[in-house]
Amino acid sequence: MASTTLPTLSDVAKAASVSSATVSRYFSNPDSVATKTAERIRQAVLETGYTPNRLAGSLASNKSQLVSILIPQLAPSLFIETIEALVSKLSSAGCIVTVGVTEFDAAHNEALIMAALAYRAKAIIVTGEVSDEVRKFIRQSSTTAIEIWDLPEDPIDIAVGFSHWEIGRSLAQFVRSRGYTRPHFVTNPGPRGIKRRNGFLEEWQTGTGCDVTESLMQLPFQPGAARRIFAEIQRLEERPDVVLCGPDWMAQGLIVEAMHFGLRVPEDIAVIGFGNSAVASEMRPTITSVDIDDQRIAETIAEILLNRDRGEEIREKVVNTGFKIIARESA
Amino acid sequence: MASTTLPTLSDVAKAASVSSATVSRYFSNPDSVATKTAERIRQAVLETGYTPNRLAGSLASNKSQLVSILIPQLAPSLFIETIEALVSKLSSAGCIVTVGVTEFDAAHNEALIMAALAYRAKAIIVTGEVSDEVRKFIRQSSTTAIEIWDLPEDPIDIAVGFSHWEIGRSLAQFVRSRGYTRPHFVTNPGPRGIKRRNGFLEEWQTGTGCDVTESLMQLPFQPGAARRIFAEIQRLEERPDVVLCGPDWMAQGLIVEAMHFGLRVPEDIAVIGFGNSAVASEMRPTITSVDIDDQRIAETIAEILLNRDRGEEIREKVVNTGFKIIARESA
DNA sequence: CCGCAAAATGAAAGCGCTTACATTACTCGA
DNA sequence: TCGAGTAATGTAAGCGCTTTCATTTTGCGG
């Protein structure tokens, strides 16, 4: 469509009879130009219909406002609330945020990281594993790498998350304290899901000496998963009295199945979710779930980025934002 | 972290003893450099740990790979499946996609558009209304504007969507053909929701002469909405025999509420959703819903962008991707 | 009214690429 | 072996900004 070329800084400068340096200053720090000049520039911008070219700006200043978020899946996603909090927080901090979907695939993940690096992103927010080779590229760059939703032993740079092992452990304690005796664990076979499972199993077995039955989710998340897993549970010799799910939508799905087959929740079978998404408090019965502090994650990240911008040293490389078990009707 | 400065094209050129132009060509069109030279460059890239700087590249070539998607809300969202399809399609086409959340706010929307323009985005994909002023900026730029999920009378540039009025109309016919007589319409007060409602009402009233009761959703979507609206329905003098919802999650919520209060679905009250998301086929009863062809939308857009890149003229400015009512158990 | 510090502006050198154009290196038929 | 035509490479001028450093303007006390 661009019939002619877009107006540039110096077009504005010409129109306002100042140098382009002054116009540049007007945009980056309005107070540094005299009020009369500022007024002339404002006019000139309007006249010319100028839109700054941030590509040029970022190139010249060697800093970009691009933040790249990489997640395995978008719909359905465990992360969607975190993403929303991040997008909103970062946007209002003047960043432009890109979203990449890795589809649980390492190659995809790394390609997306390299793409972000190519755009000289200010930060890359990842949830997946990163190979040594790519870590090297990231470290070489001035891009801040932030791992979220976990507390890695060896963070690339910064990590903001919580302990999945601890969640598993707390869930085991919670379940035991409620008097359940035959838990069934629906394991998300991603790295974090495994940690929750292990935490649960260790705590449960040392605490009770009893066994735990288990189902495996499939990645990527698929429609029909809840039905499949409920069927699996039905085939068990002895029916579990509580099921620990991955995402809340899985918990919801299991409740729906259970009720459909005439079971009462939680009397016949209790269900516990993960993520504390909106659905958890809307379901009948309301769903007991593990709450993640999306807001805090987003705020922490925004702050870290701000501090980096100001050249401050980041002291806490690994921030634990914790979690909370929210007891509701379903367990 | 960047202790030193990143390697550049000419660093690679030096290492491979060629000119930087050749290295540039090696990246944009590998076949145009001699195989021996290509091999040397490949080595040099490895040695230096070079990552192209796309900011510089885009600036010089005056074309960017950035595509910006603007939606009102992310979680819960009507659009999430469309977004996922788009992100995946566009990523594999080499684009980098940014997501902006407008929060149903015109000012937000326009700020995000201006930001995308500032990055000289290849395309902006919008779902909201765009003011005349901003339209002018878009038209002035070489950015392709794509309106999705609707068929505007006066498109900014390109539109890929379907007719909400027609959906309303088809739903009315469907409901009537099933013998329902007292529909209740849950209206999403966004521009598209209003169209669906109007289509439904017109068709219903001319077809039956009967009235339709109505509830209004609140934007942004809020937890508790389904409970609130079900309560509203319960307070009606005469109970509707079918409820037409906004998003499927609202349909699901209403079914949960209905069953919780001892109503049978669809015998006592039928429910119809919109969007045909995964939940629709997983719920018990499965949810009758309106299917949107996300894949087709994504593919159409990818193709349009490709054609634009090749300098081809786009003939169809407004593409209707249609919709389908999927009859299931809930109505 | 002068002189000086501070404020405001300007000049110009890049940032790391792409690309038009010029040049050099091949290939191959006569 | 020569030369024309093609393939491969090099040269250099930008792309639109930021930023350092130099210069001009302004404000103000004496």
UniProtKB/TrEMBL annotation, chains A, B:
SUPFAM superfamilies: lambda repressor-like DNA-binding domains, Periplasmic binding protein-like I
Cross-referenced InterPro entries: HTH_LacI, LacI/GalR-like_sensor, Lambda_DNA-bd_dom_sf, Peripla_BP_I
PANTHER family: LACI-RELATED TRANSCRIPTIONAL REPRESSOR (PTHR30146), TRANSCRIPTIONAL REGULATOR (PTHR30146:SF33)
GO molecular function: DNA-binding transcription factor activity; transcription cis-regulatory region binding
Transferase recorded as keyword: no
Superkingdom per UniProt: Bacteria
Protein name: LacI family DNA-binding transcriptional regulator
